[in-house]
Design brief:
The protein is mainly α. It has one domain. It contains twelve helices and no strands.
């Protein structure tokens, strides 16, 4: 395939497209296969509790993520960059523009959940009208108790820490640079890379989020953006499209929020907001060619 635009002669050479696809497929398979390594390969006894089971899976996910990152670094020859910060930036791990990378995608993603917010506020208002000031005290107490319980809850760590960070690292930060340097168009990558994710976790609806996460990663060049969106979506669950108790207000809010989301999708993810310079780019810097 042709070398992507923006690749300077001093940059690591672009890899064959077939090699990029094969590497992505191998990463997706290994991300799932390694979960069974403790019992199948290492012959360890089955875990005796959910905590032990998830701790083992956390370790396996960390191994798979590290292996994928090392494979990507080898294929793209990132060591030729010299500076360690530049090597990390290949995976979207950067210390610049952190506020924009976190806040803007979070606010943008929340628009899709306008119906969910209305539904929850409606429930809160109903409780307030019934129980008065006790609701505020009860909510505060429940929040404190939830935070205390969450620190020691393995499911919280799974849903809000381990899964978002490892999945975004493998399926976005590793795969997308490979596909970009493999000469694929950005639109193709956005729709292709989530297919590997769905193969790995075997959930069709994750493809939709994968499109959005890939879009965020390419446009911002920062791994934090899809991670923040991933954590927020895990916390909120599926958006509320309608709710009988709100008498259509939640439906209107969802529709209005969705319209605003698509209207702001490109302006809110403009590469200029997240990057100081858009020249001298390498093949993995998709945002340079998508302004």
């Amino acid at each position: 395939m042709a070398t992507p635009a923006g690749l300077s002669p001093a940059s690591p050479p672009a890899i064959p497209g077939a090699a990029a696809v094969a590497a992505c497929a191998a990463m997706a398979v290994s991300y799932v296969a390694v979960l069974y390594a403790p019992t199948v390969v290492l012959r360890l006894p089955p875990p005796t509790s959910l905590r032990a089971f998830l701790h083992r899976r956390f370790a396996c996910a960390a191994v798979a993520s590290t292996a994928s990152a090392l494979a990507t670094a080898a294929l793209l020859r990132v060591w030729s960059l010299g500076d360690f910060a530049d090597m990390l930036a290949v995976f979207g791990v950067r210390k610049d523009h952190l506020l924009q990378a976190v806040v803007i995608p979070l606010l943008l993603t929340s628009l899709v959940y306008a119906g969910s917010f209305v539904n929850r506020l409606w429930l809160l208002a109903s409780s307030w009208a019934r129980d008065g000031d006790e609701v505020g005290v009860s909510c505060a107490q429940r929040l404190v108790l939830w935070i205390q319980a969450a620190v020691d809850d393995v499911m919280v760590w799974r849903n809000y820490v381990v899964a978002p960070f490892t999945e975004e690292l493998v399926f976005r930060a590793c795969m997308i640079p490979l596909l970009l340097c493999g000469g694929f168009k950005m639109s193709t990558i956005i729709f292709l890379s989530p297919v590997f994710f769905s193969l790995g976790v075997q959930l069709g609806y994750t493809v939709i989020f994968g499109w959005y996460a890939a879009f965020l990663f390419i446009r911002t060049g920062n791994l934090l953006s899809p991670i923040v969106a991933h954590v927020f979506c895990n916390m909120m669950g599926l958006p509320v499209f309608s709710s009988p108790r709100t008498k259509g207000v939640a439906s209107v809010a969802f529709l209005a929020g969705s319209i605003c989301f698509f209207w702001l999708l490109f302006p809110a993810t403009s590469p200029e907001l997240y990057n100081t310079r858009l020249d001298r780019c390498r093949c993995w810097h998709g945002f340079c060619n998508w302004k």
